[in-house]
Each structure stands twice: as C-alpha cells, then as structure tokens.
From TrEMBL:
Source domain of life: Bacteria
GO MF annotations, alphabetized: DNA-binding transcription factor activity; sequence-specific DNA binding
InterPro entries referenced in this protein's UniProt entry, alphabetically: AraC-bd, Homeodomain-like_sf, HTH-like, HTH_AraC, HTH_AraC-typ_CS, RmlC-like_jellyroll
Protein name as catalogued: Uncharacterized protein
Keyword DNA repair: no
Assigned keywords, A-Z: DNA-binding, Transcription, Transcription regulation
Segments forming a coiled coil: none
Length: 287
C-alpha cells in the first residue's frame, strides 16, 4: 500500500479519536517522504510533526530549529511558523483539537498546558515509545485495520505526544487501588479457582507466590476473614455444587475434579457445608 493510501485509510478510521472523558477532532494525518516545506502561516489547532529522515528547518517566533532524524516539533495554536530548507525531509504529522463539549475539564487542562508549552522541539527521540506508537498506527492503517483499532491507537498517540512535550503530572500516574497484601490474596484466589483439582496445600500455594506459608495464612485471615484451609474447602464445595447442578458426572468424578482425596471425604465435607448429601443435592436441583 502506498503512503498516500495509508494516510487516507488513517483519515477515515481515526478522524475523531475518542477516549475516556476525551474527544479529539483530527483535522488531518499526514506523511511525506520529501516534504516540500510551507510558507509562514498559523493554525487555530495543534500540529505535531516527527522527522523520520532527512533534514530541514522549522521556524517559529524568529527562531530556527534544526530538523533531523528523530526530531519531534510542536506548532501551537495561533503561532506563526514554517518548515523550509528541506533535504529529503520525511515527515509524519497530525493536526488536531479537543472537542471541549465531550471532554472533561481534567483532560482539557492537559491540552491547555500544551498550548502554552515553551518546549516545542525534542530532538534525538528515535527510541522514544511515542515513535513506536506512531509507527504502529501507520502499520495498522497500512494493513487496513478496523476503525476501532485506529481510533484507540490514535487517541493513545495524541495523549502520548501531549505527555512527551509537557511531562506527566503526579495525578496522571497509575495508582494502586489496593495494597500489596490484598493484591496477593486476589491473585491467590484466582489461582485456587483455576486449580481446584490440585492439592492446593498452603505450602505449595505460598511457594508459587514466593512468600512464606505463615504470611499467606495471615493475609487470608485478615483480608478474607476465614483461614486459608477453610477458604479452599469452601471453593471446592462451591465448584462441586455447580458441577452437580450442571453436569451428569458421577459423584466420584466430581469429587476427583474438585480435588477431594476420596469420595467418602467429599461427601462428609459436602454434608458439613450444605447440610445435605451430594446425592440429595442433585435430586433437589435436577432440571
């Protein structure tokens, strides 16, 4: 696919990039292997460019910036600028503005900050993750990926460009929604659920998560409110009741599938947990 066709695909698939509390109107995506340069002009929107190869100059406010491979540069709204003296200047660019009526105040502030950002020139960025994101977007457009993929990559790229020029505020950084102990317990609960046919001894599960058995036992008691062994037994019975209701497996098979060492032990624990035998439970819950 030609570069021009790739850009047309991108324009169709990512002309309005919508994310969480954010709507971005993309006026145009662009790419040119030999950019011809531009006269002095200005926009009412943002335009951000990346130099794939070649050289040239970007001028803004009577200041010249050298364009060479690996350079990002930002044209802010209402600032006179031009690109000139290009020599095999291969550029990617995107022009966009925020649709305020569909964007939260928090997201609007990010781009208000971009509009007054003084650092508009970032050289030596070939290994920056934003470059990889932009190239990935172009490759997906070249492969005629779905509009959903192009939209998601498009909004991610523009947010990445904003943070590239402005940095990341503390309140933008991912924050844990729970403490480390709760996270371990939640992961252990998933592990138990996925491996109910295994012995699931406290020692084995603690070893899997690289913590001591005593620590795992304490975390379960503090977080779940019951001892580890009681939790495992409860989960085995919960799974057994589901299998009794939804399958025709024998009681012996269900005992094996749920990790019980014998059908006799299974029936005894089942009776303790539900007050009826597995056979009676099946009879009462037959469809």
């Amino acid at each position: 696919m030609s570069l021009a066709t790739t850009i047309r695909t991108l324009q169709r698939g990512a002309s309005c990039c919508v994310g969480r509390d954010l709507s971005i109107r993309v006026h145009y995506w662009g790419a040119d292997r030999k950019h011809p340069g531009t006269p002095i002009h200005k926009h009412s929107f943002f335009e951000i460019c990346y130099v794939i190869d070649g050289t040239g100059l970007y001028s803004e406010n009577n200041e010249d910036f050298l364009l060479e491979k690996g350079t990002f540069f930002l044209s802010r709204p209402h600032h006179l600028h031009r690109i000139h003296k290009g020599n095999n200047l291969f550029l990617f660019w995107v022009a966009f503005e925020i649709e305020k009526e569909n964007t939260s105040e928090k997201q609007q502030l990010l781009f208000e900050k971009l509009a007054i950002e003084d650092s508009i020139y970032i050289p030596n960025s070939e290994d920056n993750a934003t470059v990889l994101l932009w190239k990935s977007l172009m490759q997906h457009a070249e492969q005629t990926s779905s509009a959903d993929i192009l939209n998601t990559l498009g909004v991610s790229l523009i947010l990445s460009l904003q943070s590239l020029f402005c940095g990341i505020e503390d309140d933008q950084r991912p924050k844990p929604s729970y403490d480390k102990g709760r996270k371990i317990v939640e992961e252990a609960q998933r592990f138990i659920k996925d491996n109910l046919d295994q012995p699931l001894s406290l020692n084995d599960v603690a070893c899997f998560f690289h913590i001591s058995p005593r620590h795992l036992s304490r975390l379960f008691s503090e977080t779940v409110g019951i001892p580890y062994t009681y939790y495992v037994r409860h989960e085995r019975i919960r799974e057994a009741t589901k299998k009794i209701r939804s399958t025709s497996h024998s009681i012996q098979s269900i005992a094996d599938e749920c990790g019980f060492t014998s059908v006799h032990y299974f029936c005894r624990v089942f009776l303790q947990e539900t007050s009826i035998t597995p056979a009676e439970y099946r009879r009462r819950n037959q469809v």
